[in-house]
Design a protein that fits this description.
There is one protein chain. The protein has 161 residues and is mainly beta. It has a single domain (18-130), classed as Deoxyuridine 5'-Triphosphate Nucleotidohydrolase, Chain A. 4% of the residues lie in helices and 32% in strands. The chain is built from one helix and eleven strands. The chain has one helix spanning 77-83; strands at 18-21, 39-42, 47-49, 54-58, 61-64, 69-75, 85-87, 92-94, 103-108, 115-117, 122-130. The strands form four sheets. A four-stranded antiparallel beta sheet has the order 2-11-6-8. Strands 4-9-7 form a three-stranded antiparallel beta sheet. Strands 1-5 form a two-stranded antiparallel ribbon. The radius of gyration is 20 Å and the shape is globular.
């Protein structure tokens, strides 16, 4: 049997996440296209963001994630590429135990343009992932590795000489 590009090879079960909308006028997070990793988060308010400024923007969304999961707030790629809008602590982390409103700390990196947003505009994406909890074990020495202690820039073209 020859598979077409659009044939589904396996199905994916959706994770059930309880959501509480804190504002009836805002759309719930939703995926724009099948296969998207991020669900759109929308602004609960109208706001302006001058060049170089940041603001904490409410989304009107609160969620209850199952243990073993976290949600991560990512910038929207189009807003980042066209307008220099990013999430300051990208990705922002929403822990499984958090039940408050998800807010997004946005930063306008553009040098000259003030960005204007209306209530309901898509401002970020929410990606939900399974996460592991680590058991940290104190040791006297760590095992060696090829990279060793090389840090920032040590594997790229800008390592210190």
């Amino acid at each position: 049997m020859r598979l077409q590009e659009f044939d589904v090879l396996e199905t994916v079960d959706n994770l059930s996440v309880r959501i509480r909308m804190l504002d009836d006028g805002i759309e719930a997070p939703a995926y724009a296209h099948p296969g998207d990793a991020g669900a759109d988060l929308r602004s609960r308010i109208d706001f302006s963001l001058p060049p170089g400024q940041r603001a904490l923007i409410p989304t009107g969304v609160s969620i209850a994630l199952p243990e073993g999961y976290a949600a991560f707030v990512h910038p929207r790629s189009g807003l980042a590429a066209r307008h220099g809008l990013t999430v300051v602590n990208a990705p922002g982390t929403v822990d499984a135990g958090y039940r408050g409103e998800i807010a997004v700390t946005l930063l306008n990196t553009d040098a000259s343009q003030t960005l204007e947003f209306k209530r309901g505009d898509r401002i970020a994406q929410l990606v939900i992932q399974k996460v592991e909890r680590a058991a940290f074990i104190a040791v006297e020495e760590l095992p060696g590795s090829v990279r060793g202690g090389g840090g920032f820039g040590s594997t790229g073209g800008f390592a210190p000489a």
